[in-house]
Design goal:
Length: about 625
């Protein structure tokens, strides 16, 4: 049997779901191939979305017309805004979600998407003809043909799970691995390697002594991910925190000889920034304790997730160690933690569109590109889905004018993809704010300002989202214009300024001049200027979000402008295309390492070349001189 589509998406995880929706929303006839329709967008690890830098990615996904923010808001059981004590460039929303409701909400989003089919099966062989994809063959013998294919197979490609010395093939606990699909890709010249990740024990909350734990409630004024208004109907639940201790560490150390991380079983590379508990003990031998966070898995389940206790130690060692923590002295577990190894493909083999440089029409997104995290996967999936649909619609696919590519000053997703295709990975890639050189431009509050109009032009964001942004944009500009134009007299306001602990005025000024003071917010200014309070009352929707966005733009205007000037200078190098213009082997004025890296990665622009590790500023100057000739 042969089924024909424009775009195939292989894998129903976070990358696959976003890719399938984006492709279909643009208008491509799309099919999502998944092994289990009941585990769409499964949260294999913690059922949480967002966090440091990851929250910014989710807001960007939403601004681009993606679904993760809407699904998260609908199924959240706790919201928090992290890093509130720092500047707005560091604020990061995070939500704990109901795992089962998250799956079914995503499933409903897919079912309601026009031009999108779901096929429950397992991809077994990639079909390629003369360097271009034509489809896949499944384990049940079906052939699905398409002009573009997006691979989002997560941890399933030759997946191997570890608990102590026990090894079981699988892509997730109790789910089979995909045994042959990697080989059907690498036979075409694409290289693969192995990575490792892990997940903690799951705990029955009825066995927890919460009186020995510290409660960690969410925020009452809940933050939302989606710029659309989405109801959050679920009961809001707290998280809990406590620490390991010396006795816990003693038991864990006694089991290190049987840990697959240290007995030679696992040779693949694991995440530096989400280490297992046994790695923490080895890396930080003098630490007397490590923090742990007990987080709910859902509104109506007893299952809880022990954040910070990722492990692949023997199950008896894990449980014995946990019982030395006072809050877990009578702990009962649903399943122990485990590690999993899986195949990934070197992302330097990709273009910025996430299309393969080796096989036309083949796109990769998610953990198969060497990343870790739902948010990083979903962001890649969205871009890959957009570009797969645009590839299919393009009349000339060789010049890459079809590609939707975001620069590093436009989004964290742009930073993520540029890092992957330019630098590659030597460990599972996780996004941090420190990876972005333009953090002030990439705040969580302004993702819609950066991206929604682009998404609407692409067709992935719909009219209602575009209209919502235009209304918000108008209301932000009204507030800023009011503050720029409204005079404030010293005699009318000095007593209030002194009560707020800020220096009184010597002469009158405009309202906007007061916003720069750390003690002054728009709300305090509205208490002093009745006309501003009346302007706030005219805001029809998402009032606090709009006021906050206006305040950030005014308070940090100087920093924002300075960073924009720096980014604009770098754009000059982004506009200098060098792909295909040099025989790097013949350029003896370049360093040997530089020639090797440029040959392997084949950067599109001079700016991309400058970001490749091993390419020095003097090498870039040589290329500039040669371009001048």
């Amino acid at each position: 049997m042969i089924l024909k589509y424009d775009v195939l998406v292989i894998g129903g995880g976070h990358a696959g779901c976003e890719a399938a929706c984006a492709s279909a929303n643009i208008g491509a006839k799309t099919c999502l191939v998944t092994m289990d329709m009941n585990k769409i967008a499964q949260m294999s690890c913690n059922p949480a979305v967002g966090g440091i830098a990851k929250g910014q990615i989710v807001r960007e996904i939403d601004a681009l017309g993606g679904q993760m923010g809407i699904v998260t808001d609908t199924t959240a059981i706790q919201f928090r805004m992290l890093n509130r004590s720092k500047g707005p460039a560091m604020w990061s929303p995070r939500a704990q979600c109901d795992r089962e409701k998250f799956i079914w909400t995503w499933r409903n989003r897919l079912d309601e998407t026009e031009h999108l089919d779901i096929w429950q099966d397992q991809a077994d062989e990639l079909l390629v003809d003369q360097g271009e994809v034509i489809g896949v063959r499944t384990i049940w013998g079906a052939e699905l043909h398409a002009k573009a294919i997006v691979i989002t197979a997560g941890t399933f490609l030759n997946g191997l799970m570890h608990i102590g010395r026990k090894m079981v093939p699988g892509g997730r606990i109790a789910e089979p691995a995909v045994a042959h699909f990697t080989e059907s890709i690498t036979c075409h010249g694409i290289t693969s390697a192995r990575m490792k990740t892990g997940t903690p024990v799951r705990i029955d909350k009825r066995s927890v002594h919460f009186e020995d734990a510290e409660i960690q409630p969410g925020e009452e004024a809940a933050t939302r991910f989606s710029y659309m208004t989405v109801p959050t109907p679920l009961k809001q639940l707290p998280c809990w925190t406590f620490n390991t201790n010396a006795e816990v560490h003693r038991i864990l150390r006694s089991g290190l000889a049987d840990s697959p991380l240290y007995n030679g079983q696992i040779h693949s590379i694991g995440p530096r920034y989400c280490p297992s508990i046994e790695t923490k003990l080895v890396t930080f031998p003098d630490r007397e304790s490590h923090p742990l966070f007990l987080e709910p898995e859902g509104e109506n389940t007893n299952e809880m997730y022990l954040n910070g206790f990722s492990s692949s130690m023997p199950m008896d060692v894990q449980i014995e160690a946990l019982r030395k923590i006072p809050a877990l002295r009578d702990v009962r577990v649903y399943r122990p933690g485990y590690a999993i190894e899986y195949d990934f493909f070197d992302p330097t083999q990709l273009k910025h569109s996430l299309e393969s440089k080796k096989i036309r029409g083949l796109f990769f997104a998610g953990q198969v590109n060497g990343t870790t995290g739902y948010e990083e996967a979903a962001g890649q999936g969205l871009v890959a889905g957009i570009n797969a649909a645009r590839y299919v619609a393009a009349t000339d696919r060789t010049d890459e004018d079809y590609a939707f590519v975001m620069h590093r000053d436009e989004s964290y997703i742009g930073v993520l993809i540029d890092d992957l295709v330019t630098k590659g990975v030597d460990e599972p890639y996780r996004m941090f704010t420190s990876r972005a050189e333009y953090r002030i431009l990439l705040r969580q509050d302004d993702a819609d300002a950066r991206l929604t109009e682009k998404a609407y032009a692409l067709g992935v964001a719909k009219r209602d989202r575009f209209d919502r942004w235009m209304q918000k944009k108008d209301e932000i500009e009204k507030i800023i214009r009011f503050c720029k134009e409204t005079p404030v007299k010293a005699k009318d306001i000095n007593s209030q300024l002194e009560s707020l602990g800020t220096t009184p005025l010597r002469a009158g000024c405009k309202a906007i001049d007061l916003i720069g003071r750390p003690q002054i917010t728009l709300h305090t200014l509205a208490d002093l200027i009745p006309d501003l309070a009346q302007l706030f009352d005219t805001i029809s929707n998402r009032r606090e979000e709009i006021i906050e966005a206006a305040e950030v733009k005014m308070k940090y205007a100087g920093y924002i402008e300075r960073e924009r000037m720096i980014a604009d200078k770098m754009h000059r190098l982004e506009n200098i295309r060098i792909k295909g213009r040099f025989d790097y082997d013949a350029l003896q004025s370049l360093s040997t390492e530089c020639r090797q890296k440029l040959n392997r990665i084949q950067p599109e622009t001079l700016a991309q070349a400058s970001r490749i590790p091993g390419v020095s500023p003097s090498d870039i100057n040589v290329l500039l001189v040669l371009l001048g000739r």
